C-alpha cells in the first residue's frame, strides 16, 4: 500500500468512528429527550391547570402556585385516571373517597396564609395529594386518615416522592393530634356538621383553621384564633365527603 492510500484508509476509518460515535450520542440524546418529553407533557398539563383553573379564579399566592406546579398530581390517582389528573374536578381514589378539585386544594392552601416555618395538621389524608402540596410550602405536615389502606397508600406515595416532612397517622382526626399540637394551621378535607372543638384548641394563637362544614349544603369556613377569641369567615359553598367517626356519632 502506498503512503497516500494508507493515509486515505486512516481518514475513512477515523470518519467512520466519528460517525458511529456521533450516531450513538444522538441516540442517547433522543432517549433523554423522550423521558424529558414525558415529564414535560405532565408539567405542561400542570402549567395549564394552574393558569386556567387556579390563577384565573383569583389564587395568586406564589408559594401555592409553585407547589401546584411542582406536585405530580397524576401519581396520587389510580393509574387508569392518570390522563384526567389535571382536569377541573375531583376524582375517585377508592374506598368511596375522592381527591379534591385542584382549585379547591389551592384555595384552601392559600387561605391558610402559610409560612415556611409552619407546622400544619391535615385531617383526611385521602390520596396524600393535599399533604404533598402543604409539604412543598411548610416545614412539617401531620396528616390523619381514618381508612387504613388509604392512609398507608398515601404514605407510600409521599415517601416514594421524597416528602420526608410528612407524617401519616391512621385514626379519627376529630380529636386532632394532641402529641404534636399546637399547630400554626389546620386543614380539614372531610365535612363534619360542626367545627370539632379539639381542633380549635390545637391551634396556636394566630393560627388558622380551614374546614368544610355542613351536611348536604356545606360551606368552607376559615377560623382565625386571636388573643381575644376566634374570628370566623365563610368563604364559599363546597362539597366534601362527610367526616366519619366521632363527628358522625355526634350528629345522631
Ligand atoms: N385531602 C385528600 C382528600 C381526601 S377526601 C386528598 O388530597 O386526596 C377526605 C378524606 O377524609 C377521606 O379519605 C376520608 O376517609 C377521610 N376522613 C373522613 N372522616 C375522617 C376522620 N374522622 N378522621 C380522619 N380522616 C377522615
List keywords for this structure.
252 residues, alpha/beta, Rossmann fold, 2 domains, seven-stranded mixed beta sheet, two-stranded antiparallel ribbon, 7 helices, elongated, binds S-adenosyl-L-homocysteine
- CATH architecture identity of the largest domain: 3-Layer(aba) Sandwich
Largest sheet, if any?
A: 7 strands, mixed
CATH class of the largest domain: Alpha Beta
CATH topology of the largest domain: Rossmann fold
Order of helices and strands: HHEEHEHEHEEHEEEH
Shape: elongated
Structural class: alpha/beta
- The total tally of domains equals 2
In angstroms, what is the radius of gyration? 25 Å
Bound molecules: S-adenosyl-L-homocysteine
Beta-strand fraction estimate: 15-25%
Strand order of the largest sheet: 5-4-3-6-7-8-9
How many beta-strand runs?
9
In oligomeric terms, what are we looking at?
single chain
For the residues shown, what is the average pLDDT? 90
End-to-end Cα distance: 102 Å
Low-confidence stretches: 26-37
Q: Which percent bin holds the helix content? A: 40-55%
How would you portray this structure in words?
- With 252 residues, the chain is of the alpha/beta class.
- It folds into 2 domains: 1-35; 43-250, Vaccinia Virus protein VP39 (Rossmann fold, 3-Layer(aba) Sandwich).
- The protein is built from 7 helices and 9 strands.
- A hairpin with a 2-residue loop joins strand 8 and strand 9 (229-238).
- S-adenosyl-L-homocysteine (SAH) binds at residues 93, 97-100, 123-124, 126-127, 129-130, 144-147, 150, 172-174, 189-190, 241, 243-245, 247.
